[in-house]
Design goal:
The protein is of the alpha/beta class and 293 residues long. The protein has 10 helices and 11 strands. It folds into 2 domains: 84 residues, Leucine Dehydrogenase, chain A, domain 1 (Rossmann fold); 132 residues, NAD(P)-binding Rossmann-like Domain (Rossmann fold, 3-Layer(aba) Sandwich). It has a 6-stranded parallel beta sheet, with helices on both faces. Helix 2 links the parallel strand 2 and strand 3. Bound molecules: NADP nicotinamide-adenine-dinucleotide phosphate.
Amino acid sequence: MTARILDGKQIASEIRAEIARDVAALLEAGGPRPGLAAVLVGDNPASEVYVRNKQRACERAGIDSRLHRLDAAAGDARLLELIEQLNADPTVHGILVQLPLPRGFEERAVLDAVDPLKDVDAFSPENVGLLVQGRPRFLPCTPHGVIQLLHRCQIPVAGRHAVVVGRSEIVGKPMALLLAARDGTCGPEACNATVTLAHSRSENLAEIVRSADIVVAAVGRPQMIRGEMLKPGCTVIDVGINRVGDALVGDVHFEEAAQVAGAITPVPGGVGPLTIAMLLSNTLASARKAVNS
Ligand code: NAP
């Protein structure tokens, strides 16, 4: 194995420690304790794990975390009523609706109901619009985690060719925007990439990926990015989380890719922990804004 392993777990833990220090400073200055309300509908086991991990991370950082559970049969009206209550609650600075919602819920309408000032996932049309215009209120958690990872691992981004595979609203599209941005939370060297956004209709995917200095895989297909598709020495960021039997695997064939790439994130322990850290960061930012508004 030749590639350097980019330890997302370690970097996330550093970021969470910085957030804990900032939360303590906010409280000491007389500010509010940041509060995150998580909404969990139904009993999807993976969602239960994700929400538990987010809550645990909040508690460790000094962020107040409250879980609101609804039955899968509750219906849109009850869920929208809960979101209205959370929108109006001044002790709640961030609202997280854990996805996917069970069948029958209008996911888009539910997400749109979250107050954009508390939309710490950055899913609302207003926050997406601000991001596209280069003046974000909140940065989307997973793409921002990737930027932090690249920056803190000193991987050069500015001027490089980044290929993002996958164009979802949650990962691929905002990832492309952050990589191509003029500036950001980590400065101009951690963005300003030349970006190609690939998807299921892209022709010659292997050729496109092979031209990348940085590959971000966000597809949801186990191990589809193979070693032979990579430029030697490139950086590979594997966002994918796929359950195969009892194991979690990424969208990249790790063993093959690690023989070719210069640096690579593992799954698990790569991007996942950073997504949670950036959610905490957005909740803290929201609490700070509430003080100043
Ligand atoms: P998604 O909404 O299903 O989007 C998948 C994207 O991949 C789509 O744009 C799709 O193209 C594209 N795609 C599918 N098959 C392809 C192929 N053969 N070649 C090229 N592109 C292809 O998924 P997502 O929400 O972005 O999530 C992607 C993965 O990341 C999943 O494994 C998910 O679990 C994981 N994830 C991880 C984190 C984390 O914190 N690490 C956070 C979120 C998601 P079309 O648009 O053409 O259909």
